[in-house]
């Protein structure tokens, strides 16, 4: 790697603009979702949805209609959250976007199930005994209902495998494949909405609203998940140039291609990678850049945490690589304060190492905290950054002292927050970038909040799934 010259820090006044834009996008997205939920409910009420209630059966049908309308909007919102829209990735950050994805996903699924159950029960005139037969009749005799039933089964499979207890029993590769059935589930529900959901198309305004919503969702998937990755890979033609062992079970993969400056990758970001020279080439894996992009090459660092990740050690120079991205807000763009801190563990140090190299700061303005069991990652490279850039390095070796602490055993008993304040007394004045296992990262976040770090200065990425 080339020697880095000292850099001047960015003016503090230049940073808030990105934060203001991100806040505007988050506010706009929330307002758009609220409008999408309120408008169908308003039209339903204006059409006499409440006045049509005349007993248990019609009340159940009304509840089913409302839950179906809200569930449809949230399903489309879920598709947009899965579409990897750059404006959302940059504004929310991967940690907040993942949390929103989970909330919207479970809420939309719950509403869809309420819709199915209450509409069927309502059509059975409120008779539980007649409900199974009514469900059978609706499924087979109403247009689009058989496809909707298949779509619902797809959504059930996705939701069940997304529950934490189920995810722990699945390989990432299997979970990722099953998760893609969410697109199929939403797509199969569309004919049912068009053919039997009369309240969706009884006026030009409603027709425009729903067709626009469906078109935007489908277009986002087509553009950002299919066409753009295709164009990116045709343009850059990435290939493996070297695979370098970093630690037991950890390798760095060096990749080169054409005009990588046009990829516009930033330190701290991740891409979805497919290595055509290894098993599992059909499945994309999220790996963060572990070196600042220089416009000519990229580097990622991979730990053997699954079937496909363990195969990267066998990659040969010249192997073709397909990517999607870059994604994520764990970048210098999210920074607001002059001083920064990087806190990570294990292979979570990969994006932090890239940030420590690519971010601008003066000597003493950046601190690099690494938790590891046996040996630190990128030790020589980080030590060089310390010498040349004035990066302050704090290494914390050993196993965690307890399950509710993110620290190893210390020379004297002290709680996590007090230890953090002793090592970095001005931690509350810094932007803090955190990356590591999910449970560990949440403990770090709690300590940072208790130490006075504002939420807007916390930038967290977890490498779990």
TrEMBL record:
<dbReference type="GO" id="GO:0016491">
    <property type="term" value="F:oxidoreductase activity"/>
</dbReference>
<keyword id="KW-0285">Flavoprotein</keyword>
<dbReference type="GO" id="GO:0050660">
    <property type="term" value="F:flavin adenine dinucleotide binding"/>
</dbReference>
<dbReference type="GO" id="GO:0046872">
    <property type="term" value="F:metal ion binding"/>
</dbReference>
<keyword id="KW-1133">Transmembrane helix</keyword>
<dbReference type="Pfam" id="PF01794">
    <property type="entry name" value="Ferric_reduct"/>
</dbReference>
<dbReference type="GO" id="GO:0016020">
    <property type="term" value="C:membrane"/>
</dbReference>
<feature type="transmembrane region" description="Helical">
    <location>
        <begin position="178"/>
        <end position="196"/>
    </location>
</feature>
<keyword id="KW-0560">Oxidoreductase</keyword>
<feature type="transmembrane region" description="Helical">
    <location>
        <begin position="144"/>
        <end position="166"/>
    </location>
</feature>
<keyword id="KW-0408">Iron</keyword>
<keyword id="KW-0472">Membrane</keyword>
<keyword id="KW-0411">Iron-sulfur</keyword>
<feature type="transmembrane region" description="Helical">
    <location>
        <begin position="24"/>
        <end position="45"/>
    </location>
</feature>
<keyword id="KW-0001">2Fe-2S</keyword>
<feature type="transmembrane region" description="Helical">
    <location>
        <begin position="51"/>
        <end position="82"/>
    </location>
</feature>
<feature type="transmembrane region" description="Helical">
    <location>
        <begin position="208"/>
        <end position="228"/>
    </location>
</feature>
<dbReference type="InterPro" id="IPR017927">
    <property type="entry name" value="FAD-bd_FR_type"/>
</dbReference>
<keyword id="KW-0479">Metal-binding</keyword>
<feature type="transmembrane region" description="Helical">
    <location>
        <begin position="103"/>
        <end position="124"/>
    </location>
</feature>
<dbReference type="InterPro" id="IPR013130">
    <property type="entry name" value="Fe3_Rdtase_TM_dom"/>
</dbReference>
<keyword id="KW-0812">Transmembrane</keyword>
<dbReference type="InterPro" id="IPR017938">
    <property type="entry name" value="Riboflavin_synthase-like_b-brl"/>
</dbReference>
<feature type="domain" description="FAD-binding FR-type">
    <location>
        <begin position="233"/>
        <end position="333"/>
    </location>
</feature>
<protein>
    <submittedName>
        <fullName>Putative ferric reductase</fullName>
    </submittedName>
</protein>
<dbReference type="InterPro" id="IPR039261">
    <property type="entry name" value="FNR_nucleotide-bd"/>
</dbReference>
<dbReference type="InterPro" id="IPR050415">
    <property type="entry name" value="MRET"/>
</dbReference>
<dbReference type="GO" id="GO:0051537">
    <property type="term" value="F:2 iron, 2 sulfur cluster binding"/>
</dbReference>
<keyword id="KW-0274">FAD</keyword>
């Amino acid at each position: 790697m080339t020697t880095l010259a000292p850099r001047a820090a960015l003016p503090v006044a230049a940073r808030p603009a990105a934060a203001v834009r991100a806040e505007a996008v988050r506010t706009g997205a929330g307002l758009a979702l609220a409008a999408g939920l309120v408008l169908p409910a308003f039209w339903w009420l204006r059409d006499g949805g409440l006045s049509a209630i005349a007993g248990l059966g019609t009340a159940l049908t009304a509840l089913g209609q409302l839950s179906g309308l809200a569930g449809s909007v949230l399903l489309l919102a879920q598709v947009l959250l899965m579409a990897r829209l750059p404006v959302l990735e940059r504004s929310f950050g991967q940690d907040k976007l993942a949390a929103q994805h989970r909330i919207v996903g479970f809420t939309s699924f719950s509403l869809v199930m309420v819709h199915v159950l209450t509409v069927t029960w309502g059509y059975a005139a409120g008779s539980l005994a007649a409900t199974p037969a009514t469900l059978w009749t609706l499924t087979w005799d109403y247009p689009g209902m058989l496809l909707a039933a298949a779509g619902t089964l797809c959504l059930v499979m996705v939701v069940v495998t997304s529950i934490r207890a189920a995810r722990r029993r699945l390989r990432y590769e299997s979970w990722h494949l099953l998760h893609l059935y969410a697109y199929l589930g939403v797509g199969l529900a569309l004919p049912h909405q068009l053919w039997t959901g009369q309240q969706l198309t009884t006026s030009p305004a409603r027709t425009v609203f729903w067709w626009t919503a469906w078109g935007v969702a489908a277009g986002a998937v087509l553009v950002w998940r299919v066409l753009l990755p295709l164009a990116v890979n045709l343009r850059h033609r990435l290939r493996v140039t070297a695979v370098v062992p970093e630690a037991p079970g950890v390798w760095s993969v060096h990749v080169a291609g054409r005009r990588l400056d046009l990829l516009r990758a930033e330190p701290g970001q991740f891409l979805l990678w497919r290595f055509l020279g290894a098993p599992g080439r059909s499945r994309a894996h999220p790996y963060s850049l572990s070196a600042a992009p220089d416009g000519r090459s990229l580097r990622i660092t991979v730990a053997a945490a699954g079937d496909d990740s363990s195969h990267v050690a066998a990659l040969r120079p010249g192997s073709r690589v397909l990517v999607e991205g870059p994604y994520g807000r764990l970048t210098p763009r999210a920074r607001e304060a002059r001083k920064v801190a990087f806190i990570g563990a294990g292979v979570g140090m990969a994006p932090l190492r890239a940030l420590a190299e690519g971010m601008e700061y003066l000597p003493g303005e950046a601190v690099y905290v690494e938790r590891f069991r046996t040996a630190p990652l990128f030790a020589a490279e980080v030590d060089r950054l310390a010498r040349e850039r004035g990066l302050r390095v704090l290494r914390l070796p050993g196993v965690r002292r307890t399950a509710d602490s993110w620290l190893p055993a210390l020379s004297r008993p002290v709680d996590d927050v007090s230890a953090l304040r002793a090592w970095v007394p001005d931690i509350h004045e810094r932007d803090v970038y955190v990356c590591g296992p999910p449970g560990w990262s949440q403990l770090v976040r709690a300590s940072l909040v208790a130490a006075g770090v504002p939420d807007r200065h916390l930038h967290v990425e977890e490498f779990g799934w």
